[in-house]
Amino acid sequence: MFDRYQAGEQAILVHVDFPDESSREDLQEFKMLVSSAGVNALSVVTGKRNSPHPKYFVGSGKAEEVADAVNLFEANVVLFNHALSPSQEKNIEALCQCRVIDRTTLILDIFAQRARTHEGKLQVELAQLRHISTRLIRGWTHLERQKGGIGLRGPGETQLETDRRLLRERMNNIRKRLDKVEKQRQQGRRSRVRAEIPTLSLVGYTNAGKSTLFNLITKANVYAADQLFATLDPTLRKIEVEDVGRVILADTVGFIRHLPHDLVAAFKATLTETREAELLLHVVDIADERRSENIDEVQTVLDEIEAGDVPQLLICNKIDKLHDCQPRIDRDENGIPIRVWLSAQANLGIELLFEALAERMGRQVIKHSLRIPPTAGKFLGALYQLNCIANEGYDEQGNCLVDIKLPVREWNRLIKQDKADVERFIES
Question: What subcellular locations does the record give (predicted)?
Fold first, then answer.
């Protein structure tokens, strides 16, 4: 049922330049998408048009050129760097006598290959079903007649209607299962809110270096590669930030130009981590010539998932690819960090990132001198766990004298957790 292909398939790529910026796609990025899907590109057919041709998208002459390339190179699939209508796909397939895949289906297939978790697989399948439900008619015209045979003659639904009904039932079933997973995620978020643990979320254009930075910061082993959509399933890890304490860092799926709406809708539950984050770390491949357009595209998707108003810290990554660029922090007129220049791959400037995080998130820090009696050993142990003790000593009565420095949220959490009147330990 699905337009899925095996690794190593031979493809003809088709790319059209349009004068309208909103319709324009990047050919180099398309080649990376094809490579990420495990497809071998034999040839690229390019052209220019003011608007798509209603029948073939590329015009009848260019369509014949694509068909000739298929025959010449013995290709078995044609990949378009654009979104095609079902009728356009059907017409080109009839002309080329092989499968035709558009950009949206290609991205969906890459997501299907990369999904690892149960939730990720369900989300990708839901997006695929939404997409294919509009394309059932293509190649299925022989199923438009009603089913025949003993007991099946007469009024009834056609095979096409049956397939559509089965698709709807499957989509409803997936939505119910995703709702259960979302409830589990909400429980996890509620427990973090109760513990007053803030969340940071890595966002950015695909292949900007988010997972490499995530691995470096958290010492995790998340899959990172120089390919589009290397990360699909979100990963959460705890990190320690000075003057802030424990923080949850989330690595999320990368964005891309004209990200299929079916995917955005399917992954809205996963991207809730982004929407509810205290700060977004917007990672940018600063060596990319189209970095400004990539930033705009990410902002567009953030607006779509209602995360456009979340505060951001811009991470200018891959400075090792620039000539004579050193790690640094850029600040606004109030001295607040707004950009950090670093290289995750070369491990440059990571300490500046933590410095910027401490300034952006740790502005409410308290300092106390405490006199803790021997009977409050549990509370003293909690202070050790938070690593917030600056000085320590004992008086003649055996009381522990400590100077502490920690975020207000951690102090408030200690007061809630400890049954004793913690504030009586504070020295006046």
Answer: Cytoplasm
| 195-233 pLDDT tens trace | 567 788 888 888 888 888 988 888 766 555 555 555 555
Q: How many domains does the chain have?
A: 3
Alpha-carbon span 80 to 100, nearest angstrom: 8
Q: How far apart are CA 151 and CA 60, in angstroms?
A: 47
Distance of CA 148 to the CA centre of its chain: 48
Whole-angstrom distance, CA of residue 88 vs CA of residue 59: 11
Three-class secondary structure of residue 332 per DSSP = coil
pTM for the complete prediction?
A: 0.66
The pair of structure tokens assigned to 264 is 């955005």
Residues making up the binding site for Mg(2+): 211, 231
Look at residues 59, 83, 101 and tell me which one is the last residue of a structural domain.
101
Annotated binding site for GTP: 204-211, 229-233, 251-254, 317-320, 343-345
Domain that holds residue 248: 197-362
351 pLDDT exceeds 90? Answer: yes
**Tens-place pLDDT, residues 74-89:** 998 999 998 888 889 8
CA-nearest of 62, 21, 92 to 300 is: 21
Instruction: Please tell me whether residues 372 and 329 are part of one structural domain.
Output: no
Cβ–Cβ under 8 Å, residues 302 and 275? no
Known binding residues: 204-211, 229-233, 251-254, 317-320, 343-345
Using alpha carbons only, what angle is made at residue 251 by residues 247 and 254, rounded to the nearest 5 degrees?
150
